[in-house]
Every structure is written in C-alpha cells, then in structure tokens.
Design a protein that fits this description.
The chain is mostly helical. Helix 1 runs parallel beside helix 11, helix 6 packs antiparallel against helix 10 and helix 8 packs parallel to helix 10. The two termini are 19 Å apart. The relative contact order is 0.19.
C-alpha cells in the first residue's frame, strides 16, 4: 500500500509568551501501523503461553517463555499510541460531536461482532459462568468500572481495553484543548508527574490490597490515563516543531534488555521484585513513546527516510488488521483449548502457536474487509444533522472519509 505524503510539522512562530498551537495536522505514518501489529502479536503470544496458568507448565514454548509474559504490557503501548494518534491528527475547531461520531464508527462494529462470537463460543457452547449484567457491561464497554462482573473480564475478555479507550475518547476533546493552552515543557512535566503517581499508586496496591482488587484497579480507566496522556503530549510536542534525535533501534534494544530483566526478576531482584512490578507500566509507556517518536521523526523530519521495514506493504496490511486480530485472538485461543485441551510444553506448543496466529490473522482479515472497514466508511458518510450542525453534511464527510492514521485509534 503506497504511503500518503506527509507534511512535516513546521516550527511554530513566535507567540510572545503564549504557548504555540500546532498548525499542521499530522499525516499518516505507516511505520506506526506496522508497529501496532507487532504489539498485538506480543499480546497474542502472552495469552497463548498463559492459557494454562502461571504454574501449569502447559503451552510453554522454551525459546520464548517466560519472555512472552511481557506481552501483557502490549496494551500499554496501545494506550500510548492512542493518545499520540488522536493528538497527531487533531484538527483545531473539530467539534466533540464529530469526534465522538467518528470514534463510534471506528470501534463498535468489529467489537460487537467479536463480542457476540465470544458469547456464543465461550459462554453458550463453552458453558462459562456469567450473568446478564456482566454481558451487557461488556457489550457496552463499561465493564472496567465494575469490580463485581462475572467473570473478571466478561464477554470478549480483551475488550476491557476498549472500555478504557472509551473513557479516553470521552475526555479527549477536553484534554487536547486544555493541553493546547500549556507550554510544551509544562505538558512534559505534568506527564512525567502523572507517570510517577501511577507507579506510586501501583506500589501501594501491590503492598496493601489483594490480588483481585489490585488487578481491577490497575485496569481501571483512571489508572491508565497517564499512558494515554504521555502519547498525547508527545504528539503535540512534535507538531509544535520538536524533533529529538530519536532512533528506534536503541529503544528496541532497551526494550529487549528490560524484557529479559523484568521477566527473570525473581532470579535476581529479591525484595525489589515488588518495585519492579509497580514501575513496569510507566517504564513500558516511556519505551513505547520512544519507539513512536522515533518512527515519526524518521518519517517526517528533515531528510525523511520513510518507515523502513515497519512500513513494508505486508506489515502495513497486517497493521490494518491488528484491531480485528486483537479482538479475535483470545476467543480463538480459548475455543481451541476447550475443544482439544491444553498443549503440552515444548516444540509442539510452538507449532500450535504459529498455526493459531495464522488462523487468527486470516479471520482478522475477513473481519476487517467484511465488516470493520465497510461499516466505518458507511458510518462516516452518514453523520446526522445533530452531529454536523446546521446540516453541514459535506463537512462531516470531509472529516471522516478514509483517513488511516497508523494506529488502533
């Protein structure tokens, strides 16, 4: 797929003490599309090798486990990327109603299809316990606000992240307009302080609450807001002309080293294990924003070099399918386990994991081309009068016609 032309963000003009506003909406960055598929794949690998529980010894792939357990934090990358992309493509003057309309058409069709599939396969045929309130909470994407849903992640279990995203979307028009009134250095300070608070809250939770309560709070939309805010601040900084000397490979090496250290923390950290657990989300958020910024600088800075292998047509295509892949993969994992049982650890599990990933990718492509993208286009072309205001249907269509920004947002 050919990349769209990108307009480099121009340095903001002098504003006599007033914070500079971003003047040019950000263009698509194909490398971010490819990157989001790798993040979805990391989440899949974590879920596949964790189906048997932490001590079961099943579905373990020796060459990858325990490093695949780091994949659970791929959702943090998505939260950072979401904040970045929404701010990167934000057009000052766009009404909140238009923004909300676009978001609804982006997430709901595929979510409802995948949610109904999970309910049929796992709860109706699979016999898992649930209740009407939990099912409705999952379909309406409010499940993360209630600690008593059944099971802990009801319906399509991975949709809890969409519940968090829905909260971010609700706040975004207010957050971005407030952020535009602040200097970049102030925004960076606020974002850094929020990550520090996030780590402090996580440490308190791990040392004072039970496991179930801790997990619920750590998934709560308010608890994940600093990750979204970090991405938003980074996008505004770049749109205001910041071009840090960022390269992706040092960040990738740092992420790999941190993954090894974190996943083997029990072997060396001792009493510091709890501290590592409390800080992993902020650390991953910082590494994630480093990768995102490096990709954008490479694609949009002076002497832009494109997106490299992350922007290859195949990886971009997979990136476009990544939302559907994310929604479907855990249901497929559970359905296979229900039908054929847990895979024993070893080489067989590796080939089963590869086969499951291929099937999930094929299903994701079908969902994307068969429902997600057609429904998004249909929805985007038909904003009602109360959304566009004064019947300005042409303006609504101009804002919502095909515009892939390179991320699951």
């Amino acid at each position: 797929m050919p990349a769209l032309a990108l307009t480099p963000a121009s340095p903001a003009p002098a504003t006599h003490g007033r914070p500079p506003d971003p003047l040019v909406p950000g263009g698509r960055v194909d490398a971010l599309t490819g990157l989001r598929f790798l993040a979805a794949l990391a989440v899949f690998a974590h879920h596949f090798t964790g189906l048997g529980g932490p001590d079961s010894g099943v579905a373990r792939v020796p060459a990858f486990f325990p490093y695949t357990t780091m994949g659970v934090h791929g959702v943090g990358f998505f939260f950072v990327l979401s904040g970045f992309l929404l701010a990167w493509g934000y057009r000052p003057g766009t009404s909140a109603r238009l923004f909300y309309w676009r978001r609804a058409g982006r997430i709901w069709p595929a979510h409802l299809a995948a949610g109904l599939l999970a309910l049929v396969l796992l709860f109706w045929w699979g016999g898992r316990a649930t209740d009407t309130f939990s099912v409705l909470a999952s379909l309406l994407l409010v499940q993360t606000w209630f600690p008593g849903v059944t099971p802990t992640l009801p319906g399509n279990s991975v949709a809890w992240t969409l519940s968090v995203e829905l909260f971010f979307y609700a706040l975004f028009p207010l957050l971005v307009r407030g952020a535009l009134a602040l200097r970049t250095r102030t925004l960076l300070a606020v974002s850094g302080a929020s990550l520090a608070v996030m780590a402090a809250v996580n440490l308190w939770l791990l040392t004072h609450l039970s496991g179930a309560a801790t997990e619920w709070v750590m998934r709560h939309p308010l608890a994940r807001l600093p990750e979204f805010g970090l991405g938003l601040v980074a996008a505004l900084a770049l749109r205001r002309g910041a071009r840090p000397a960022a390269r992706a490979w040092p960040v990738a090496v740092a992420l790999a080293a941190y993954t090894v250290a974190y996943t083997r923390r029990g072997e060396w950290a001792g009493e510091g294990t709890v501290l590592l657990e409390a800080t992993v989300r902020p650390v991953v958020a910082l590494l994630a924003v480093g990768l995102v910024v490096a990709c954008v600088v490479r694609a949009t800075g002076d002497g832009a070099r494109g997106g490299g292998w992350l922007a290859s047509p195949v990886l971009v295509r997979l990136g476009l399918w990544s939302y559907a892949f994310y929604l479907l993969h855990q249901t497929l994992n559970h359905a296979i386990t229900d039908r054929w049982g847990h895979q024993p650890a070893g080489g067989v599990a590796f080939f089963t994991m590869i086969g499951t990933a291929v099937v999930a990718t094929a299903l994701a492509g079908a969902l994307y081309h068969g429902l997600e993208e057609p429904a998004r286009r249909w929805w985007a072309a038909r904003p009602p009068r109360w959304v566009t205001g004064r019947g300005d249907l042409g303006r609504g269509r101009a804002l919502f016609l095909p515009h892939r920004s390179g991320g699951r947002s």
